[in-house]
Specification:
Order of helices and strands of chain A: HHEHEHHEHEHEHHEEHHHEEHEEH
Strand order of the largest sheet of chain A: 1-7-6-5-4-2-3
Oligomer: homotetramer
Radius of gyration of chain A: 20 Å
Largest sheet of chain A: 7 strands, mixed
Distance between the termini of chain A: 25 Å
Number of domains of chain A: 2
Helix content of chain A: 40-55%
CATH class of the largest domain in chain A: Alpha Beta
Largest interface: A-B, 52 and 51 residues
Number of helices of chain A: 14
CATH superfamily of the largest domain in chain A: Type I PLP-dependent aspartate aminotransferase-like (Major domain)
Shape of chain A: globular
Chain lengths: 347, 347, 347, 347
């Protein structure tokens, strides 16, 4: 029972089977294989328009490439001050974008305060070279705290970007979880709302190691491919990246997996929230749960074999649980039971 | 029958089985898993000293990280003018090293002319800030042309590096092929000869997607890990990188695979060289064969289903064949037969 | 009467004369001239220890070079969220440091809240590669708002840096103004308090175009000189940078100039503060004054030929006045008079 | 008598006077002054079309900014293998262009072999991401060896760039010397021949410290200004850069200065070449002379107070003399006399 992250699981069986199958025979290397050849088509259908897709092995790479596509080296990308792209990529976006700046924006629950964001950018005089040129906004959907931006807010950001000539990046490491809850289409949540580049998460949603940069302006594909190569992210055997995406998208699996993870998170969060002394830190709208609880309860849960994350940066004792495509409902119920008993003892 | 590259194959069955097996259960993410924990030990035993190992998914990443470990941004790394690191990484080493320079060195068969190399560096006055500071030498072993540096030459480079205070990188994308031919130990070919950082190739030798940076000064591990993260090469599910290396090293498989590939290359090159009108361009000491032949022969071979690479940069019509861990000797013999017949017709 | 910035003035007559004098005859180029040869000695005497000095033409260059000396590309330098280095260098420090991050720290009057700063760094687990490695702290002295850090606070930062293994940079674009007010020695305000690298400002203090990187570890001089060259800041006729510094330091001029500027700022701020309806935004401890006043008063002052800066980023109507080495006391009195009359009319 | 470089002189008297004059009074900072305001107009007139001009203090900065304007980080700029931009900027162009590559091109006398250049670029398949994308060509005029590219060759490069979609940079650190010899107009030697960006040299031609980036597509001015700022090359007191250019261009001084320097070089080279035992290494078409001579002659000249440069990289004992705007013909004659006497003794 390990809920420390959606990264502690392996790949879904369907993905692993697809990898094994793709291993047979030879294929042209460096993305000229039969699997990669199908990617653009599959994603274009998924997003209801022509897109260019570039698979890479990590979310960091996808985010950093996306940043570089939207931010010149003398520019700035605005993002939440606690977002993964700002805080937990060890400067990869800055590196890939040639030394560009990421500007932190405050806001509750990990969501940017849009009024604050728009004002911060609006105050900067165009052509004022002392301040890095506002060039892009990055919005994480679902947010790392487990909440979502309402579709209307995504559109507000998109409209602002159009008006100001800014690029719009969506960090969708948990894009599927957002879709599963919002119930809108991939197109609606992205380019129809003004998104230019999407980091499409696979690794956290049933894949072994693949995320994709989805470019809604396919004319810029060549630049993206050059950038992927020079950051060391072009695999010689790219088929093994492509096939993971193909297997997860086939037959809508990716959305079912995410919906399952969300459902498990809902079940767990409801169970925990019902225990006096345990409080949810954020609304639970995706597959992540942050909750405060006595350290004694944490200890008891760990002693009972429940894996989770003690959240170091929080001021109160806080845990994070993340559910995944394969989370067993029985495990969820067991965790709630353990927590409940531990709290009873602690009280 | 595809000999276009050692990248056109998939992974060896043993590697794929190990991946499937490693997929079971949960593991701590970001390299804190049970598989990765074994890597340093396995490699330290292999190299007969303590080393730090950092697995990544591509050879480009391994080379670029190695460059960054040895070359400050105001420095220069010297390498062959046709080497992969100089010519075919799209500037990844330069990016990872913060804008450092790679300085091209001429030499026959893709091997640096060592006298030229030493003189070029020797002419630069220490502290002469106009010229990027000579900081490292990168030597490819086996060379992309299919030849090797004799062990004595590797040692000469190592001695020069020690004397001048330079770092010494070995691009070992085909390190196993070199070892298999030279018959020396991994230690002898690397740190005992003065190598500081090795790019250890797995992808071209039976793996799905893994190469490793091997650092012979393990005290610098932390820097390497930071650099890996900020270039997007830290996998959340690192176990899937580590297990490939473990499976290939276990029981000496990697060396057997490379020896087989080399033997197949020898068989093929001998067969081709015996055909009048076909000439080897370089000695065949590893798993790569470059040969000149009439275009009509190339056409006939392709028509017969033989895959290979037409070498665009050569002045005469040239092909490249690369053999791999799983090359079937019967295929080799068939290729020779086809070439022989085609040449007879062409003549 | 232009108080828009300390940059609107030219150079002090003594500096201009020295430039004219240095123009005679030939000198070895690229810093091998007689003037540059004296710099290290003059600064070593000034700072009571051996230092390495590297003159450049702009404060941005000095700050960015200093950042690069203290922050690896995977590292982070902490600084105030409104500091020049963070906000108004258009990312130069990030570029020079190879894509490193600058992390913003809040605090009143442009001074970092030291408790907040220490806690932010203290929370990060050493070796946690997801977050850019805390590597340096940059403190501006005098602060851009016109206030100072007390010497005790500089020492607190220095002690923290020593304890945590961090580099300590002081942005001293207005270093002389700070010294003039604090009355301590250059040594006390810098290396004796733990500072590793100082940006020593000349341009704002009587020079034409020169700031200097002062390195308190002279063994790292070579690296600094390479970095200067590769950022395009090595002048072929370096004598013209060096002579400005020599002329301003000679006979203590630089401190007299700064003391005069500070005195003029004190005189102006006292005069303005005495006018009902005009309020100082920050204490005036150096040569900068920020004040709120009705827009009508601003308009009237401008109409009367008084130059100043309308501070765009402020929420209330705010002006900035900056005094300089050559500010005429009569002008100060005239400005106060104009402001007073304008306010009387506006009321 | 110092002929070591055109950098050993100070500024021409007219330039120094203009600097002194510009020092009076206050001016808006950061390029918003009255002098800088005139630059675009003066240069647009000089080049017979609208241009954007960006003055910086060094030729390295001008070249590196120009490179960045024409070469994306995943691109390559082709230049001569011994050119200043390739060899003696310590990687500044690579840094400013975000890690782009400079690709060395051979050719006699420091001039690129154009057939070789065109073939090298022509061999690379468009979109082949392994090789840095050919993006620009940089041609030095006058060449560092003292020769020139004929105008027809400049046009050939321009035509090739247009055909292939490449940018065309001219390193004109000695642009005036080239013009003075070729007798064509600034427009003919640059944009009419296809040049996109010119590094316009001032420092080597009578200025104190100023070179300029001249952009023939003024619509890209904003990007250039951002790039200048983030590399630390925006002076707060930009008037002092601008006025140097204004003073040197006024009344055609810059061309007269260059013509004088060229005439002095011609006089010196003819004198030296007439001495048996002294041989010119390159044709002398600008203000630089490279000559082989016995070391004893070099020693004697130095003993007699003649300054020059012993050329370390040459295989035979070689000296470089550079003449300048203020070279005294009597000194030239004296050098020839000394050399002649020394040779007589040495023989």
């Amino acid at each position: 029972m390990n809920f420390a992250s959606d990264n502690v699981t392996g790949a879904a069986p369907e993905v692993m089977e697809a990898l094994v199958e793709a291993n047979a025979g030879t294929q042209r290397s460096y993305g000229n294989d039969d699997y990669t050849a199908r990617l653009d088509g599959v994603f274009s259908k998924l997003f209801e328009r022509e897109v260019a897709v570039c698979p890479v092995a990590t979310g960091t790479a996808a985010n950093a490439l996306a940043t570089a596509m939207l931010t010149p080296p003398y520019g700035a990308m605005y993002c939440h001050e606690e977002s993964h792209v700002y805080l937990e990529e060890c400067g990869a976006p800055e590196l890939f974008a040639g030394g560009a700046k990421l500007m932190p924006v405050p806001g509750e629950h990990g969501r940017m305060d849009l009024d604050h964001l728009f004002a911060a950018i609006g105050h900067i005089r165009p052509g004022f070279v002392h301040i890095a040129k506002p060039s892009a906004i990055s919005l994480t959907q679902a947010v790392e705290s487990g909440v979502l931006y309402p579709l209307a807010d995504v559109r507000r950001v998109g409209d602002f970007c159009r008006e100001k000539g800014l690029g719009f990046h969506m960090d969708g490491a948990r894009f599927a979880n957002a879709l599963a809850t919002l119930g809108c289409s991939p197109a609606e949540l992205t380019w129809k709302a003004g998104v230019d580049v999407l980091s499409f998460g696979g690794t956290k949603n049933g894949c072994l190691a693949v995320d994709a940069v989805v470019l809604f302006d396919p004319d810029r594909r060549e630049e993206l491919l050059y950038r992927r190569k020079r950051t060391g992210h072009l695999w010689s055997k790219t088929r093994f990246l492509a096939v993971q995406l193909l297997a997860s998208i086939e037959d809508g699996r990716w959305l079912r997996w995410a919906a399952h993870a969300n459902a498990m998170a809902a079940r767990l969060s409801e169970g925990l929230a019902a225990i006096p002394g345990i409080d949810l830190v954020h609304p639970v709208e995706g597959n992540e749960i942050f909750a405060t609880m006595p350290v004694a309860v944490m200890d008891a849960m760990e002693a009972a074999g429940v894996g989770f994350n003690r959240w170091a940066l929080a001021t109160e004792p806080t845990v994070r649980f993340v559910t995944a495509f394969g989370t067993d409902p029985a495990d969820i119920d067991r965790v709630i039971e353990i927590a409940s008993e531990a709290m009873a003892k602690a009280a």
